[in-house]
Amino acid sequence: MPERMRHVPLDMEKAKRPEAEIHIIKDQCKGCGFCIKFCPQKVLEESQEINARGVHPPKIVDESKCVICGFCTAVCPDFAIFVVEKLSKEEIKK
Amino acid sequence: MVQETVHPLSKYLREAMIPHIWCTGCGNGVILNCFVQAVDELEMDLDKLVVVSGIGCIGRAAGYTNADSFHTTHGRSLAFATGAKLANPELNVVVISGDGDLFAIGGNHFIHAARRNIGVKVICANNFNYGMTGGQQGPTTPLEASTTTTPYGNIEHPFNLVHLAAASGATYVARWTTLHVRRLTQSIKRMLQKEGFCFIEVISPCPEIFGRRNKMRTGLEMMDWFKRASVVENFSDPSKAEISTEKLIVGEFVNTEKVSYEKFLHEKISQINEKRVGW
Predict the structure, then answer these.
(1) Is the Cβ pair A77, B30 closer than 8 Å?
(2) How far is Cα B232 from Cα A55, in angstroms, rounded to an integer?
């Protein structure tokens, strides 16, 4: 175990990793592949289906790996993908 | 996965105009995305935002933003923006235009707007050629690059846009590529909060017209070039900020404060009016 892993933050129990909710607007995608190529966690990959524009939109491989860095949202030229934090049931009630 | 049709930034875009007509792999959409994101983060009033653009592919950006916008004739985007800013200095006037529009036909407007320090913010999409008209060689085409009018390689020295802007007297000068989305958004935010003339050059991929004649057939290959070659050197000498296949120097080059032209102008007018009352 590396040295830095032995020291855990004091509020480690309370803190939890946010869960991502990836929204893909498939028919707006033009298939440039920027989101697939530059995702740091490799969450997306090219799908086999064909959308209204005749290209392969991205599909999600593993949504739990996403850390909501938001790079795909920022780099998409067609406003076709965005990521938000998934709210738990208690937060939705509020 | 959840299917959702409303993008959080879609309120800043004209619904009827989206999806846009830019090619697959084009960087103009990224620039529009970063600009809209910066406007969203600053919570700017859309009634006080004016987006002006000139002729070129990126010229359509004015039509896509939901602010008050105008698509001017070739090269005259800064002339129009100057008029809008002087008539109502409360407006935030942003010019989003291309390298051919701002530096070829509009070159004189650019250097004099920068010299006077008019409070207009300029975002220039540099794709190294005239993309809309079929890929002719332009003022920013690198040496030895192949275009439709230079099939054996370009022999003209290109403009160094950041050096030109800094030498003309712009108060904020930066250069980013479309891969540096976060830094570009931050840079646009910083620029929108400043008073004087500001200039950001965004190096944008043009795979369909420029890239395929220069061994970069897709937008991804051009973005790979940006990733491989770009070096961030903040506040370095803009005259040494080269663009070549091996090295692409990006960063903020100038960030100074200077009194803007419209402030001087309106002060002068009020001084003259006070004298007249005393007669």
Answers:
(1) yes
(2) 34
